[in-house]
Amino acid sequence: MLLFVADVGAVVVGCALAFLIQAIAKPVSERNTQNQLILLVLSIPIWMIAMVGSRLYIARANRAAADELRNIATACVIGGLSITSLAFVLKVIELSRLWVVLIVVCTIAALGAERRVANRVFVGLRASGRLVRRILVVGTDSDCISLVHAMRRNPELGYEPIGFVGPDDLGSRGGVTVLGGVDDVMAVLDETGVDNVILSPRTIRPAALNGLARKLTDRGVHVTMVSSLTDIASRRIRLQELDGRALLYIEPTIRDGWRRIAKRTFDVLFAALGLLVTAPVLLASAMAIWVETGGPVCFRQQRVGRDGQPFEIIKLRTMVVDAEQRRDQLEGANESDGALFKIRSDPRVTSVGRVLRKFSIDEIPQFWNVIRGEMSVVGPRPALLSEVAQWSDDLHDRLRVLPGITGLWQVSGRSNVSFAQYKRLDLYYVDNWSLRHDLHIVARTFVVVAAGSGAS
Which candidate, 374, 441, 361, 366, places its Cα nearest to that of 401? Predict the structure, then answer.
């Protein structure tokens, strides 16, 4: 209800903004303004119906930002058309087309902004244990256990697994209680009052699965089917039907053609602009490095690029001059697992270096690597040769694309991310690459850097 009130308020703000822009751009007579106000007031019920009818209050229909924006646009276009229809019925001849367009555009913008704020509020509330959806998981296989672990790792998603139902003896799986067998599902729902169920095809026979799904949906329970597919973006999955069977089609990831040209164009323009804008910062940083240590300003190191080709990365030096020689002495202090080497308070980092790392200023010279075609603005972290030597075969798939200055790993916690998560994030990026995803990561990077959490 509060979200609906907030949406109505956003529509009012958008309409007021449309009136303001019209008054500045193309003023109309007082009579026309009165007619517009009358049409707007009369159309309010239609706006409300349109917002509900456009599925703006169904959480699963607005999980992706693009889906939510499409639903907002649908509601606002219907609202704009209702104004035009009312003007025709009431024979309002002098209706400003500019005003109608402004109404639609401004309400889309206002609703979009309000929904972003509301989503942030909801994330905070869910993370604190409020507005959560209690979930019963029907299945006790590894997919179900992994799913429950993911829910617990990400409380901001708003899921609270209350237990499993499956063929195992009563006990617990993955730290969550097994409440009974598959035949006990309805009794468990009666006892717990849960109305959200996740079903696993690996645990339940197909015939029983279909029957159970029908019973649950007839009861009004929200049913979700767990899939063994992992790390495939939902935007790549299309539901198809064949002889009454549901099939999942996975869209291929296309990196060639115009997409490769567009990514390269973006890289060069962004890198050139980045070097130009940050030139004073680079100069001041270089002077600070030289004053503190008297050594070289830049740090150069061999990294592995696309298709395994080595290249020399360029960064501002943030460590003492003999940092590489001292690494072996610190091997026992490594706080990371796998092939990564990370020390939260690395003694080799200089005072100036800590500041540069905090705001990722040391990464700026890599824009030159981007211009040279050795790196991209967005991509997997450029790995050391010694790290690549320790990789499993599947991790070499990340070498299909150029390494990046920023990426999913860089905006997802960096030093706080385990090697398994680092591997998963990089492979997810490679497998699900898109230009829109790149732009989203760049936007998140600005937020991370502005918050001073860029240290790596």
Answer: 374
**Mean of the pLDDT values across residues 191-200?**
90
- Encoded tokens for 252: 């291929």
How many alpha carbons lie under 13 Å from residue 183 in its C-beta half-sphere?
A: 0
Count of helix runs (H) and strand runs (E) in the chain:
15, 13
Q: What's the pTM?
A: 0.72
Contacts of 109 (CB under 8 A, 6+ apart): 14, 17
User: Which H or E run contains 298?
Assistant: strand 298-304
Taking only the tens place, the pLDDT of each residue in 236-280 is 888 888 777 778 888 888 888 999 999 999 999 999 999 999 999
- What is the CATH T-level fold of the domain 133-228, as seen in this structure? Rossmann fold (3.40.50)
Rounded Cα distance, 208 and 205, in Å: 5
Provide the pairing of β-strand 222-225 with 196-199: parallel
Report whether 134 contacts 196 (CB < 8 A): yes
Q: Where are the domains of the chain?
A: 2-127, 133-228, 258-450
DSSP code of residue 379 = S
Q: What is the pLDDT of residues 224-244, one digit of tens each?
A: 888 878 888 878 888 888 777
- Bridge-based pairing of strands 133-138 and 159-165 is parallel
- Indicate the helix (H) or strand (E) that contains 303: strand 298-304
* 330-357: pLDDT as tens digits: 766 665 655 666 666 777 888 998 899 8
> Over the range 420-451, which residues count as b (16 or more CB within 10 Å of their CB) and which as e?
eebbbbbbbbbbbbbeebbeebbeebeebbee
